[in-house]
Amino acid sequence: QSLPQQKLLTWLSVLECVEVFAEMGTARVWGEMGRWTIIVLIQLAKAILRLLLLLWYKAGIQMSPPIVPLNREQQQPLHPQDMENNSSGKDQTYVGRRSSRVVRSLQSTPSLQSRHWGSPQQREESQSRRAEEMNQPPTPLGLQETFAESLYITRPLLHLLSLGVWGQRSWKPWLLSAVLDISSLSLLSDLKDLNRRERAELRRRTILLLYYLLRSPFYDRYSEGRILLLLRLLADYVPGVGFVTR
User: Fold this and answer.
1) Within-domain flag for 144
2) Is there a domain that residue 204 lies in?
């Protein structure tokens, strides 16, 4: 990734980390009008950054979180004692004669800070597999897939616009948002040869469709009563969970 693309990903990650705090803090200081203003500004900034990544830098299907969390075990350097053991040529594993089980030899046991509980071969294979996955370029998107990803990126803005037009009690914003999400996933489902991270992102988006059951006005009219009834049944008839459910 180029340096400007990394900066865009960094700013996008920062926005996603602070957006809830900014919304709550603004609502506390400037009230409901300030809260909706900061929501619109943050969603607009996120959409612009994501569209730049999609259309200018060809970033493909964008992940959440934008920057992959650091794998500290993979990045951990070897300690001097471990480097000595590796350079001395000692066998790192021992294969049992009858069980054929591979275990670490006592001579090559690493220091406590860098010790792990798998065989060296397993760790090397997992590290090489992770590195290969991280270095895979994004799958090129055609016109249909680019349109689908653009729908997913702009959906929060269209949802906010529909809320401003029809109000928070109307079904139209809820339906519009759901249609955009489902349409985006349907168009992206035709894409083949996705890498592992992209497939995981599409699965995450599919699971997030369940949140529509907890969004107003569907939640207010249908889900709330059923969920509260279930929680009351659990509190009354299942020992040990009443404190939590109440």
Assistant:
1) yes
2) yes
- With vertex at residue 10, the alpha carbon angle to CA 48 and CA 157, rounded to the nearest 5 degrees, is 25
d(CA 171, CA 25): 29
Q: Are both 233 and 143 inside the same structural domain?
A: yes
Q: What angle do CA 146, 15, 74 make, to 5 degrees?
A: 85
Quote the CA–CA distance of 53 and 13 in Å, as a whole number: 13
Per-residue pLDDT tens over the stretch 178-232: 999 999 999 998 888 888 889 999 999 999 999 999 999 999 999 999 999 999 9
Residue with tokens 């969390």: 69
- Cβ-count burial 75-97 (b if 16+ within 10 Å, e if not): eeeeeeebeebeeeeeebeeeee
What is the domain count for the chain? 2
User: Is residue 122 within a helix (H) or strand (E), and if so which, with residue range?
Assistant: helix 120-135
Mean pLDDT over the full length of the chain: 85
Contact 44, 19 (CB under 8 A): no
In a domain, 202, yes or no: yes
Residue ending a domain, choose from 38, 59, 80: 59
Residue 93: strand pairing partners: 104
Length of the chain (residues): 246
Integer Cα distance of 140 and 232 in angstroms: 50
- Flag whether pLDDT at 89 surpasses 50: no
Q: With the C-alpha atoms ordered 218, 224, 229, 230, is the resulting torsion angle positive or negative? A: positive
26 inside domain: yes
Instruction: Supply the range of the domain harboring residue 11.
Output: 1-59
| Residue 236 C-alpha from the chain's centroid | 36
- Domain boundary (11, 28, 59) is at 59
